[in-house]
């Protein structure tokens, strides 16, 4: 995204800063309030699992596809998780078609790290024949409308899609070939990470920044929190700096908000998943 | 390097595989002004890591449409040589390298006075010649020195060092095997003059208390690296002054 000086940008920054002095935000939220979140799952018939997350006006879809493939040579006993993000041109005037750029790679890798490091997906359960045949789980993140905080929305969509994904049950023949059965099984999940992003504007930290807020933010931090409140991934994302105290404060807020989102938003999918 | 899964990363004496204590940084060698053609350069050996950084600029921006009218465009390219890893690394930039280039840029940009050079570009090229865990920290440490060597005005140096968790213990400066087998890795960069965190990434699993301890340890490591950076600059620039017959202790 080309950066240049603009009067509109300076005005936006001034307005946001003025409000923050009184702990207020443009859309009337408090500093640690999330926008309204809606998650719809199972919308895409061709995907093994899918979820559409609406976070305020931001819309992100995630689709899970499961294929077979060969494991990585250094992890012969493990299935493979591949996360990719597309900043689809219809989502923003600043997104252009083309190969993945820095922004989409960072987004995909931070979401991937949250899932991978929290051991959300039990990759050892996705091995068919060690060293030869494993399941490959693709998580494809599709940004449809960009009004800020793509990281949290993408992580939420990905975990929701994984929670509701179904794969064909299978057995392994003696010669190592796969035989698929008629019924479906769930994916082997053991954690439900939630990512929380905070923007720092004029020494104030705000949760779930809108695009306007992200554009004037000095810096951003995204934290992935697992189900026991453990910290699984962290990324400072923009130029700008934090003091050590601010980092610890951001992580504490993230732990609290993650718990809230997991209960309120993911709760129904987790209950359903654990019952199945 | 093959290890058995149950092998310990810390022995009974509390020493790590390479004999280091828990809060000990690997041996580091820093040389400023290693290259002839670049405007500024630095070479860092950090344990087995070997990293060479060149800085060019302020110069005309290519492609020109990226030029900014109100400040200099600052770019970083982190790249690993094909022979720098156990298995050959394809020379094309991987997704990891693209991400690291971005976070390294964000780690250094806060200290660069970009506003002094509108319509120009400052480019840092970081080449990893041999890698053994912690290359982004070594790269940041070297790049901030190469920027000084190029004469780019800075608010201060940036020093980087990682902390992590192995065998349940919070330790400083993970090497390759510890990063691979350990439980968490937390690379941190700070601008020591103002005590600001400019790079912060983490993967693995930390409780809040472990995270707090690791962050403190990493910052402590950064401060030690900062001392070595200052020492390397003194070594380089005091000698130049002596040659010119101007002996001055302070750089």
How would you characterize the overall build of this protein?
The complex is a heterodimer of chains A (276) and B (251). Chain A has one domain (18-275): GHMP Kinase, N-terminal domain (Ribosomal Protein S5, domain 2, 2-Layer Sandwich), CATH 3.30.230.70. In chain A, 30% of the residues lie in helices and 32% in strands. Chain A is built from 5 helices and 12 strands. Chain A has helices at residues 7-21, 102-117, 150-164, 211-216, 244-275, and strands at 37-41, 49-55, 58-69, 80-87, 127-129, 133-145, 166-172, 178-186, 194-201, 204-207, 219-225, 231-236. The radius of gyration of chain A is 20 Å and the shape is elongated. The model of chain A has no long low-confidence stretch (mean pLDDT 95). Chain B is globular, with a radius of gyration of 19 Å. In chain B, helix 1 (95-108) crosses helix 2. With 251 residues, chain B is α+β, with helices and mostly antiparallel strands. Chain B has helices at residues 95-108, 135-149, 176-181, 208-243, and strands spanning 28-32, 40-46, 49-59, 73-80, 121-130, 159-166, 169-172, 184-191, 196-206. Chain B has one domain (28-239): 2-Layer Sandwich (Ribosomal Protein S5, domain 2), CATH 3.30.230.70. Chains A and B meet through helix 2, strand 12 and helix 5 of A and helix 1, strand 9 and helix 4 of B. Strand 12 of chain A pairs antiparallel with strand 9 of chain B, so a sheet runs across the interface.
Could you outline the blueprint of secondary structure elements for this entry?
The complex is a heterodimer of chains A (276) and B (251).
Chain A: H1 7-21, E1 37-41, E2 49-55, E3 58-69, E4 80-87, H2 102-117, E5 127-129, E6 133-145, H3 150-164, E7 166-172, E8 178-186, E9 194-201, E10 204-207, H4 211-216, E11 219-225, E12 231-236, H5 244-275
Parallel strand pairs in A: 4-6
Antiparallel strand pairs in A: 1-2, 2-3, 3-6, 5-6, 7-8, 9-10, 9-11, 11-12
Chain B: E1 28-32, E2 40-46, E3 49-59, E4 73-80, H1 95-108, E5 121-130, H2 135-149, E6 159-166, E7 169-172, H3 176-181, E8 184-191, E9 196-206, H4 208-243
Parallel strand pairs in B: 4-5
Antiparallel strand pairs in B: 1-2, 2-3, 3-5, 6-7, 6-8, 8-9
Helix pairs in contact in B: 1-2, 2-4
């Amino acid at each position: 995204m080309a950066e240049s000086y603009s009067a509109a940008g300076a005005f936006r920054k001034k307005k946001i800063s003025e409000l923050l002095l009184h702990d207020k935000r443009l859309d009337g939220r408090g500093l640690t309030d999330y926008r309204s979140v809606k998650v719809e799952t199972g919308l895409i018939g061709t995907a093994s699992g899918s979820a559409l997350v609406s976070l305020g006006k931001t819309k992100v879809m995630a689709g899970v596809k499961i294929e077979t493939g060969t494991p990585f040579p250094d992890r012969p006993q493990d299935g493979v998780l591949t996360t990719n993000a597309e900043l689809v041109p219809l989502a923003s005037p600043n997104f252009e078609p083309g190969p993945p750029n820095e922004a989409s790679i960072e987004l995909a890798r931070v979401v991937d790290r949250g899932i991978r490091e929290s051991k959300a997906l039990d990759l050892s359960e996705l091995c068919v024949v060690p060293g030869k045949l494993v399941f490959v789980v693709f998580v494809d993140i599709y940004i449809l409308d960009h009004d800020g905080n793509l990281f949290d929305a993408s992580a939420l969509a990905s975990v929701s899609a994984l929670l509701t994904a179904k794969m064909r049950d299978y057995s392994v023949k003696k010669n190592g070939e796969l035989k698929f059965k008629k019924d479906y099984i769930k994916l082997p999940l053991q954690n439900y990470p939630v990512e929380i992003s905070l923007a720092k504007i004029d020494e104030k930290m705000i949760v779930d920044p809108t695009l306007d807020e992200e554009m004037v933010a000095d810096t951003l931090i995204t934290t992935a929190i697992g189900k026991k409140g453990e910290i699984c991934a962290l990324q400072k994302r923009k130029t700008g700096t934090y003091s050590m105290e601010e980092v610890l404060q951001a992580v504490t807020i993230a732990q609290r908000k993650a718990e809230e989102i997991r209960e309120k938003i993911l709760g129904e999918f987790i209950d359903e998943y654990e019952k199945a | 390097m093959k290890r058995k899964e149950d092998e310990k990363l810390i022995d009974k004496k509390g020493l790590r595989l390479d004999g280091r204590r828990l809060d000990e940084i690997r041996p580091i060698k820093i040389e400023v002004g290693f290259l002839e053609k670049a405007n500024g350069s630095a070479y860092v050996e950090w344990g087995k890591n070997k990293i060479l950084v060149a800085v060019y600029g302020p110069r005309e921006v290519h492609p020109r449409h990226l030029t900014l009218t109100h400040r200099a465009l600052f770019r970083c390219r982190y790249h690993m040589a094909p022979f720098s890893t156990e298995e050959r690394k394809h020379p094309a930039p991987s997704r990891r390298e693209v991400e690291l280039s971005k976070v390294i840029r964000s780690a250094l940009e806060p200290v660069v006075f970009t506003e002094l050079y509108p319509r120009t570009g400052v480019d840092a090229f970081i080449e990893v010649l041999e890698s053994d865990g912690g290359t982004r920290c070594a790269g940041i440490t070297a790049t901030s020195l190469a920027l000084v060597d190029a004469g780019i005005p800075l608010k201060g140096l940036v020093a980087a060092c990682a902390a992590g968790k192995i065998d349940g213990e919070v330790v400083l400066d993970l090497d390759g095997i510890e990063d691979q087998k350990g439980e968490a890795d937390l690379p941190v960069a700070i601008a020591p003059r103002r005590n600001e965190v400019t790079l912060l990434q983490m993967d693995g699993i930390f409780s809040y208390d472990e995270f707090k301890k690791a962050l403190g340890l990493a910052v402590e490591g950064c401060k030690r690296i900062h001392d070595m950076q200052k020492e390397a600059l003194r070594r380089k620039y005091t000698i130049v002054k002596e040659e010119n017959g101007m002996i001055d202790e302070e750089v």
